[in-house]
Amino acid sequence: MSLPIIIIHQGNPFYLSTCIHHAKVYNPKNKIFLLGDESNRHFADEQVSHVLISDYFTQAKAFEPLYRHQTTNPYHYNLFCFQRWFLLKEFMEAMHFEHVFVCESDELLFCDVEKESLNYLNVDFTLLNDHLANSILMSYPGIVKFTEFLTSAYSNPELTSTIDKLYQALFYNGKRVSMGGIDDMTLFNMYIQQHSCQIPDIGSPINGSCWDTGIHHDTGFLMEKGIKKITWIDDLPYATYKNGELIRMLGIHFLGGHKMKEFLFMVDDNKKHIDPKTLRWFMAKQWIIKIFNGFKRFSFFFRRFIQKQSCNFWRKWYKI
What we know:
By secondary structure, this protein is of the alpha/beta class. Helix content is 39%, strand content 17%.
């Protein structure tokens, strides 16, 4: 079986469709599993299997009583960032998967993930810059070890004390001096300090390519207007490294407020980069069509309403 691609997301934001589109275009032979909810069930097709999160949430639910909220992020959002790894473990167990490729829902893939993962099949999992997991290869032994570490981190006094110290570093004289806090990426960083030899970093250039940690992270790359300067060569994105070398981006991560920029990097079904001007005109036409159709629906229901009110008026007038 080809390497499964896993996307975990609750809800149906605009960027989820572009993520799935790129995953399908660059990996037509790989099965994609969307672990989601009822709102994104419509993405299911011959290549994409939709799986309800609630069907594999037992282990994730068991973690909730241990969790302590130490961040400015919303409670349920941050809790789910931890719980998704238990969800992934339970799903991999049920499907008997030895390896999966985990893709964040705000990531655009530009490569064959199976080909790019071949060199890492003997490790627990990969990471980007020692803590980011937006596009990683995960093995079953790796997810078992990491979820066990998450449980220990919130039950073992020594590890809990380490987390508390990291959280206190965000304060000075009792006042918060930095936003954010403790999330699953924090725990990945703690884990890698104990298992660094088993966790390769794929967020730095290797043989002329790398995975992006975030479109707005310079990480040694040339920046332009607050994001990496991207050059398109044969419809593939390249970023310029600090030594002048063009590095092929295997995937680009549009986290935070940069999700709207995904539309500047989209490709069509033939892997051809869509010119932003063409895309803007296409999107404008779609909005015009939506507005026109919305107006037609409004007109229809408004006429129905007027007709009904008119009938009611004449019935009362004639006392029918």
